């Protein structure tokens, strides 16, 4: 089923719950988180995968993860204008709805919500990512995470999922969503799915289509840098940044925006234990991000 507006989405979800063997959700479940939580044992589990379209194998892996853990899978396809800043690629962001619907059908999605607009007119009230949205990507793209959270929060209210699946490639996005869900008491479980990569290591992204063949080769420096950082992690944080930085410095056609180590919990500074190594760079006119998890030593060598 494909829904193009909120009314069609509501109708599609009702139809989904009326399938043979499904225990319909009550009005209380749709309107109150605690009521939904208390009744999960006797009704289908619903999952959502939110996308901006231009679906690739990374999105397909999210849909498969959702399909494996839920009875009902809803995919959303919407290029969110709230998370694009002035001069960014909102207008040229790839829109491939027919192909996207084919991917969803192949992966067994029950409902595709592909609206023309979510907030029309634009909302007067938006969510704020707070300090989580002011660092890393947020420093380069002010307001990006506020717009993203506003859209994600709205989608969660519209779809009423039990599970929400997001890729770990957008690590800062995942941290922000998890904190929003925890801090604002959304009744949903957020599940991160490993980054999908091309055979040569390039993180899959809808923006990869912008790259020329030469630029695509240059872009491999990002994943090589992360691998070098992981290899050096036993020597501590400075060694990680030095090893990854050396790879990027030697790369042709790569303009680094940031290379940082951050806490996977709050994106703050980290010197030991679990950490994220994050990189953003421009290859030609295309801005790419990537990250990897690693463990920093706790002894004096890594301090």
Give a quick precis of the structure.
The protein has 303 residues and is α/β, with parallel strands linked by helices. The protein has helices spanning 6-17, 27-31, 33-38, 57-69, 97-106, 137-140, 144-159, 171-183, 213-231, 237-249, and strands spanning 2-3, 46-51, 72-77, 111-113, 163-167, 189-193, 254-262, 273-283, 286-296.
Largest sheet: 6 strands, parallel
- CATH top level class name of the largest domain: Alpha Beta
The 3D shape can be described as globular
> Taking Cα atoms only, what radius of gyration do you get, to the nearest Å?
20 Å
Oligomer: single chain
By secondary-structure content and strand pairing, the structural class works out as alpha/beta
pLDDT under 50 segments (min length 5)?
26-39
Indicate how many domains the architecture comprises.
2
Q: Mean pLDDT, as a whole number? A: 91
| Proportion of residues in β-strands | 15-25%
The CATH topology label of the largest domain is Rossmann fold
Task: Work out the helicity level.
Answer: 25-40%
Q: Cα distance, first to last residue?
A: 54 Å
- Trace the largest sheet across and list its strands: 1-4-3-2-5-6
Following the backbone from N to C, one meets helices and strands in this order, namely EHHHEHEHEHHEHEHHEEE
CATH architecture grouping of the largest domain: 3-Layer(aba) Sandwich
Q: What is the H level of CATH, i.e. the homologous superfamily of the largest domain? A: HUPs
Number of strands: 9
Number of distinct helices: 10
Structure description:
The chain has 303 residues and is α/β, with parallel strands linked by helices. It folds into two domains: 2-25 and 42-193, Rossmann fold (3-Layer(aba) Sandwich), CATH 3.40.50; 208-296, Pantoate--beta-alanine Ligase, Chain: A,domain 2 (2-Layer Sandwich). The chain contains ten helices and nine strands. The protein has helices spanning 6-17, 27-31, 33-38, 57-69, 97-106, 137-140, 144-159, 171-183, 213-231, 237-249, and strands spanning 2-3, 46-51, 72-77, 111-113, 163-167, 189-193, 254-262, 273-283, 286-296. A six-stranded parallel beta sheet has the order 1-4-3-2-5-6, with helices on both faces. The radius of gyration is 20 Å and the shape is globular. Mean pLDDT is 91; it is low at 26-39.
């Amino acid at each position: 089923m494909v829904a193009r507006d909120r009314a069609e989405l509501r109708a599609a979800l009702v139809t989904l719950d009326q399938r043979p063997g499904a225990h319909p959700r009550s009005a209380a479940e749709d309107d109150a988180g605690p009521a939904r939580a208390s009744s999960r044992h006797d009704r289908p589990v619903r999952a959502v995968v939110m996308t901006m379209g231009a679906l690739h194998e990374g999105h397909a892996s999210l849909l498969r993860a959702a399909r494996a853990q839920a009875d009902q899978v809803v995919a959303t396809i919407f290029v969110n204008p709230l998370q694009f800043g002035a001069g960014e690629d909102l207008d040229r962001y790839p829109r491939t709805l027919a192909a996207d619907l084919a991917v969803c059908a192949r992966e067994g999605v029950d409902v595709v919500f592909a609206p023309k607009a979510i907030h029309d007119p634009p909302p007067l009230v938006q969510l704020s990512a707070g300090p989580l949205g002011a660092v890393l990507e947020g420093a380069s793209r002010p307001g990006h995470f506020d717009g993203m959270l506003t859209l994600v929060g709205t989608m969660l209210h519209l779809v009423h999922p039990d599970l929400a699946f997001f890729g770990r490639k957008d690590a800062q996005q995942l941290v922000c969503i998890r904190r929003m869900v925890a801090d604002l008491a959304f009744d949903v479980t957020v599940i991160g799915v490993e980054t999908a990569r091309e055979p040569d290591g390039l993180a899959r992204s809808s923006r990869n289509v912008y790259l020329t063949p030469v630029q695509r080769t240059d872009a491999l420096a990002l994943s090589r840098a992360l691998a070098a950082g992981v290899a050096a992690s036993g020597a501590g944080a400075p060694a990680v940044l030095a090893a990854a930085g050396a790879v990027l410095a030697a790369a042709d056609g790569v303009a680094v925006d940031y290379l940082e180590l951050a806490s996977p919990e709050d994106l703050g500074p980290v010197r030991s234990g679990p950490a994220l190594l994050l990189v953003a760079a421009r290859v030609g006119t295309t801005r790419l991000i990537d990250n990897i998890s690693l463990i920093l030593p706790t002894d004096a060598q890594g301090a």
